[in-house]
């Protein structure tokens, strides 16, 4: 896919995604109202994602040229250092079932992908409700923990260092 990053155009391939954690962050369109607040929130937290070995990829059905124009025109978008992927044919949006054919845009969706390329968590929101980068960061950390400790589960609101749950058949009988 074509991408805009650090004032340059790049190509991002599947090989670029493998070997590290990834967050694919779909948003409806450039030059909109809620989207820049979400993307700016991700930009503020981008270093924290990188610290835990996770690359952030924002994705819309616009072109990389539109991403650059938006970057040049909007102070919130100018803060972005992560790749902004262009999906004008909606191939990735359709593949991950976030494409809204009526509107011709992707819905708000985020996908956490393991280093092996497996989607381990996802969320889709088909409304004008913005997402929270802190919560996405928490979900990536929890996904990483469970990936590393397959015999553990993370309870609601879990953050690193807190107790986890060790599922057992004994607990099932108590339900």
List the helices and strands and how they pair.
Blueprint (H helix, E strand, L loop, with lengths): L1 E4 L2 E4 L2 H4 L3 E6 L8 H17 L2 E7 L3 H10 L10 E3 L4 H5 L3 E2 L4 E2 L1 E6 L5 E7 L7 H16 L20 H5 L2
Parallel strand pairs: 3-4, 4-5
Antiparallel strand pairs: 1-2, 1-5, 3-8, 6-7, 8-9
Protein name: Peroxiredoxin
Pfam family, one: AhpC-TSA
EC number: 1.11.1.15
Question: How does this model look, in words?
Answer:
- The chain has 175 residues and is an alpha+beta fold.
- It has one domain (2-130): Glutaredoxin, CATH 3.40.30.10.
- It is 33% helix and 23% strand.
- The protein is built from 6 helices and 9 strands; from the N terminus they run ββαβαβαβαββββαα.
- β3, α2 and β4 form a beta-alpha-beta unit.
- α2 (35-51) runs parallel beside α5 (133-148).
- The model has no long low-confidence stretch (mean pLDDT 94).
- Residues 1-145 form the Thioredoxin domain.
- It is an enzyme of class 1 (oxidoreductase).
């Amino acid at each position: 896919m074509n991408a805009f990053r650090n004032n340059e155009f790049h190509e991002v391939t599947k090989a670029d995604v493998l070997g590290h954690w990834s967050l694919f962050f779909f948003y409806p369109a450039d030059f909109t109202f809620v989207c820049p607040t979400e993307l700016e929130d991700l930009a503020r937290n981008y270093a924290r994602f990188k610290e835990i070995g996770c690359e952030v990829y924002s994705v819309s059905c616009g072109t990389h040229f539109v991403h650059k124009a938006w970057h040049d025109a909007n102070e919130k978008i100018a803060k972005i250092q992560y790749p902004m992927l262009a999906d004008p044919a909606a191939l990735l949006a359709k593949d991950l079932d976030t494409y809204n054919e009526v509107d011709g845009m992707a819905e708000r969706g985020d996908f956490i992908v393991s280093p092996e390329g497996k989607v381990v968590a996802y969320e889709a929101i088909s409304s004008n409700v913005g997402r929270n980068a802190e919560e996405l960061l928490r979900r990536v950390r929890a996904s990483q923990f469970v990936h590393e400790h397959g015999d553990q589960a993370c309870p609601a609101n879990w953050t690193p260092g807190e107790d986890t749950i060790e599922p057992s058949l004994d607990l099932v009988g108590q339900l």
